[in-house]
Automatic annotation (TrEMBL):
GO terms for molecular function: lactoylglutathione lyase activity; metal ion binding. It comes from the Bacteria. InterPro entries: Fosfomycin_Res_Enzymes (IPR051332), Glyas_Bleomycin-R_OHBP_Dase (IPR029068), Glyas_Fos-R_dOase_dom (IPR004360), Glyoxalase_1_CS (IPR018146), VOC_core (IPR037523). It comes from Streptosporangium carneum. This is Lactoylglutathione lyase.
Amino acid sequence: MSFKTGHVGLNVSDLDRSKEFYLKVFGFEVLGESDQAERRYAFLGLGGELLVTLWQQSEGRFATGLPGLHHLAFQVPDIETVRRAETVIREIGGTLHHDGVVPHREGASSGGVFFEDPDGIRLEIYAPSGADERPAPTEGGPTCGFF
């Protein structure tokens, strides 16, 4: 038996705001959506492949201090793609941790950007190499574990 992550479903407080964020930062396309008042959702993906579903059925901000999702990471082919995402996050005034592209740990070439969506859900976009221009922000531990 083998497992592969399919899509990830996220509860959001404002579907329109979240949809705009994910379309801009990730370059996703809308694969399907509903605008029924009590059943609002959007299916987002690339090339027809579903990656993220947004469900408007929450209030407030994501509570990182409670058990549940730590962060959601997306791998991209190269560090240039990560830097383009960083630029968009900065342009839209997103919450960016570690002030930009950083390695996953000291001495690692893999790494990326760590940020939050409009509801405070922690996200990461990373590449397998090219992130070793700056030191890791967390000494002795994985960067993705402490933001």
